[in-house]
Amino acid sequence: MHSNLEHQLSSLNRSPASEPDPAWIERLKVKLSWMTENPVATHVPPLDLQPRYFPRWHFLLFTGSAFAVFLLLGVSITLAAQRATPDAMLYPVKLASEDLRRVLATPGEAKARLELELADRRMEEFKTLTRKQKLSPQTAASLETRYQVHVTAALSALPAVSAPQIQALAESIAEVTDEHAKLDTELEFELSQNVRDVHEEIQQMRQEMQARTQRMREFAKDSARAARELKARTGKAEKVRLKIETDAMGTTHVKLEVEERNHGHEQKRVDEFTVPADVATSTTSIIQFQNEEDDQDENGNEEKGRRQSEPKGYLKLKFEKKDKGKEELKGRSFNNGVFFKVESEASSTGSSVEQRIDTNIKSESKIELRYGQE
Amino acid sequence: MAMPNEQSSVPDHIKERFLAAYDAHVKSIYRYIYYRTGQEKGEAEELTQEVFTRTWAYLYRDERPIEDLRAFLFQVSRHVIADRWRKHKPIVPLDEVAPHEEPQHEPIREATVDTILIEQYLLKLPERYREVLALRFINDLTTEETGNILGTTANNVAVMTNRALGKLRKLIPQSP
Fold it and tell me: Of A6, A36, A193, B90, which is most buried, counting CB atoms within 10 Å of its CB?
C-alpha cells in the first residue's frame, strides 16, 4: 500500500464516503441563490482573513495583567484592612500583615517601635469597640492579651538597642503607655453611663469589661514605669560583687553583694548561700528586687508593706561544680520586664574567687574576675 | 464599511461568479472539510454552507477584489474550521471510528478497502499534516496554491507534505 500512497490519497476525492449528497448540493444552491437575491438577509460575522493565532506576547500580556490585577487587589485589601477593627471581616488580614511585619522587623529599635505601634493599635481598637458598644468579652480578652504581648515585646527589645537611641526609645514607650493609662478613664465613664438601665447579665458583663479596662490601665501604667526606670539606668552599671569560697570540707560559700541606685542613693545588699560538698549543682534565687519609689510616692506606708512582698524582679543563679575543679555560675536576672544574662566560669577549688558583675541594660553582663587567696 | 441598504442590489456578475464558484468547488470544499474534521457528513455539510455564506457576505460587501475565488474559498474554510474548533474541539478516537458503510449494491473492491483504511489513518495524523495532505492530494492543489492558502512558501509545503506522508506511512501497518 505504501508504494502508491500518494495515488491512494488522491483517490480519496472519489471516495463515496467523502462524496456530498447531490440532493444536499441542490438544496444548498437554492438557499444560496435566494440569499444572493436578498442581500440584507445575509447575517454573518465579519470576515477575518488574517491567520488567527495567539502569539506568545498575548499570553504573556494576559498572565502579566492577571498577576498585576491580583497583586493590586492583594495590596489594596491589605491596605484597607489596616483600618479594620476586630468586628470587621478584614481584621484577620490586618493581624496577618502585622505578624509578618513582626517577623521581618530587625531586632533592636525598629522592633521595639513596631511593637509599640501595634500596642497602640490594640488600645485604639479596644477603645473604639467599647464606644461603639461592640466589644464582646472574647474580643476584649484577645485585645488585652495582644496589648500585653506587644508592650512586653517592646520593653524586651530595649537591651538590644544601641546606647544612643535607648534613652529616646525608653521615653517613647513611657509616653505612649502613659497615654494609654490616662485615656481609659473616659471609657469607664461611658461604661458607667450605659450600665444603669440594662439587663443584669449585660451589667455583669460590662462590669467585667470595666475590670478588664482597669487591668489594662494598670498594665500600661506599670509599663510606663518600667520604661522610665530602664531609661534612668541606662549606662549606669548595677554592681554585683560575687565571692565564691570553697572551704576545707569541700563546702562552697557563695556571697553576693549588690549595689543598687535608688533615688540617687546607693544601696548595698548582701545575700549568701552555701553549696554542700556532696552537691554538684545548686540553683537559687538570691536577690529579689523591690520597687520602693512608687510605694512611697503614691500609696503611703500601708501600700508599701503590701508592695514589698511582691518582688519586681529577681536574680536567679545556677552554681555548678564541673570536672577538673572548675566551677560555673550561670544566671538570669529579671527586673522590670527585662532579662540580663550572667555567666561565669572559674577554677576555684581550694581557693576563693571574687567576681564583679556589671549588669547594664544595653548589653549582656560584663564579668571581671579577681583571684586572690583568702 | 458601507452596508448596502435593502434597496441596493448586488451587480449580476458578482452573483453569477459566486454561483458558478459554488457549482465548481462545492465538492472540493466539502471533501476538504470532511477530511479535516472528524469525517462527519452532517458537520461537513453545515460547515460547507457556512463557508459559502461567509464568502457571499464578503463578495457582497465588495471590500477588496478577490482574484482567485477557489483559494479564497479554501481560506474561508480554514477559518470556519478553526472557529468550530475554538467553540468545540472534536475528540474522535480511532477505535470509535467505524468503517463507513458502503452502498450495498457496490461490491467491496480492494481499492475501496484501502481507501477506507487511509481515511481512518488520516484521522490519526496531526492536524497540520492532515490539512496539507487534504489540499495537496484530495483537492489536487499544487504546492504554490497550497502555500497560498496556508500562507507559506511552496518549499515549505513540499517539506510538510513529505513529513506528512512519512508519518502516514509509519501509521499504516505493513502488509504481510
Answer: A36
